[in-house]
Specification:
Elements lengths: L4 H26 L9 E3 L17 E9 L5 E5 L8 E6 L5 E6 H4 L4 E7 L12 E5 L3 E9 L5 H10 L2 E4 H5 L19 H9 L4 H4 L1 H6 L14 H21 L13 H4 L4 H10 L9 E6 L8 E2 L5 E6 L4 E11 L14 E3 L11 E6 L2 H4 L5 E3 L4 E11 L1 H4 L9 E4 L2
Parallel strand pairs: 6-7, 15-16
Antiparallel strand pairs: 1-2, 2-8, 3-6, 3-9, 4-5, 4-8, 10-17, 11-17, 12-15, 12-18, 13-14, 13-17
Length: 416
């Protein structure tokens, strides 16, 4: 059977999010000899020195890592937070579907104890557990976020971060620990995406959950646990990756709202796979719209891509977005989708860092000339290259979740 370009491309688009999750696991934990079931703490706000994954926020401290629930569940205990501080424990299975959003939007300041288990686990839930979360994959991506505005507040946020506790169920109960599941993780440097995705599909119940998708791509060899592929399948995989990445690179700049890109299996299991893959391409840790809406802004009032070259500057005036938690703009360079260096080390501006004007509206200035505007609290530095902004709306209104939000217009105020 000849594997067509369309089938090869679509198979890759299906597999893309799984493979990106696997490569991130390997890069951040397996290759450096890190441990599963342990929080990796980012003790400072991410800035231009952070390059592990694109489009990370500049608003919160992070606790990231990987749960392994193959042998037994894990238990996370989170302390109560102070009033007005955004926090969330966000987890995703290896398919890039969100399976938990536990935080201030739904619980306010109240922390709790939460148990994460494989879909097939049938043990007894201990007393004191507030919620049980099931995962289709035995390996679960974890990202905790604790808001901070920096300065003196940074130590308060770090103290909260240090009180987040992660244990296996046996550690939590003080009982004997079952043998850990042994795995031979394929090295991305010497394997292709077919082998890595087959490995991931075999570790848990993802292959059962995705049986309809896998049936479509059987010809290319997408099968849980498979390690050997025909020459035709390998050639089609290479062709599919090239065509799939070309499609994502063309599609991503046209997307301005994440409503169809990020979410739970229940919401997106049967949605368009290229849109779902674009959600991974634009940012691996994106939250679903009920928690956070992401609005990409990449053009000025002249219709051209935002760019600080030659001293070009932009200004927007706008009313505060309707959110229950907070909102912020962060600037990223188009080339690598990372924050760019500036002398102020300032990468975001929002409701905690901007002061409203006399009429209650806000002003945001974009410029690469940091020296000229260093004293202006409304300045968000942008690089002298193509740039985009992500407006994060945490706890958005229902209208915003539906995509009913008009982005601020950035007027040209200086165009040498």
């Amino acid at each position: 059977m000849t594997i067509s370009d369309d089938l090869a491309r679509d198979a890759y688009l299906y597999a893309y999010s799984i493979d990106e999750a696997y490569k991130f696991l390997y890069e951040t934990t397996i290759a450096p000899g890190g441990a599963l079931n342990r929080f990796q703490k980012l003790r400072d706000l991410a800035d231009d020195t952070y390059t592990a994954h694109p489009t990370i926020n500049n608003d919160t401290l992070h606790l990231q890592g990987w749960f392994d629930v193959a042998a037994e569940p894990v238990v996370v205990t989170i302390p109560d937070a102070d009033e007005g501080r955004y926090w969330i424990l966000h987890t995703m299975d290896m398919g890039h579907y969100t399976n938990a959003m536990i935080g201030s939007r739904t619980r306010g300041t109240r922390g709790g104890t939460f148990l994460f288990a494989a879909r097939a686990w049938d043990g007894d839930v201990p007393d004191g557990v507030d919620e049980v979360i099931r995962s289709e994959s035995n390996l679960i991506k974890v990202m905790g976020r604790i808001m901070t505005v920096g300065g003196d507040d940074l130590e308060v946020a770090r103290a909260l971060q240090d009180r987040w506790r992660l244990e296996t169920l046996s550690q939590h109960l003080g009982t004997p620990t079952p043998p850990a599941t042994q795995r031979e993780f394929p090295d991305p440097a010497s394997t292709d995406w077919l082998e890595r995705v087959a490995f991931s599909l075999a570790d848990g119940s993802m292959a059962v959950a995705d049986v309809e998708w896998l049936g479509r791509y059987a010809a290319i060899g997408l099968e849980p646990g498979r390690t050997e592929f025909t020459a035709e399948q390998l050639e089609a995989a290479a062709r599919g990756e090239e065509l799939g990445m070309k499609h994502l690179e063309e599609l991503a700049p046209t997307l301005t709202n994440a409503g169809e890109l990020l979410g739970t299996r229940e919401e997106l299991q049967h949605g368009a796979r290229d849109l779902f893959a674009a959600g991974t391409f634009l940012g691996q840790w994106g939250l679903p719209p009920v928690e956070s809406v992401y609005v990409k802004i990449d053009t000025g009032s002249d219709g051209l891509i935002l760019n600080g070259s030659g001293g070009k500057e932009y200004r927007a005036r706008f009313s505060a977005p309707e959110v229950s938690e907070f909102w912020s703009f962060t600037a990223y360079a188009y080339g690598n989708r990372l924050m760019a260096h500036n002398a102020l080390n300032r990468h975001s501006r929002g409701d905690r860092t901007l002061t409203p004007d006399a009429d209650g509206r806000y002003t945001l200035l974009l410029s690469s000339d940091v020296n000229a505007h260093a004293a202006d609290g409304n300045l968000l530095p942008i690089p002298e290259e193509n740039t985009y902004l992500v407006l994060r709306l945490y706890g958005p209104s229902e209208a915003m979740q539906r995509g009913d939000y008009t982005s601020p217009v950035f007027e040209i105020v200086k165009n040498p």
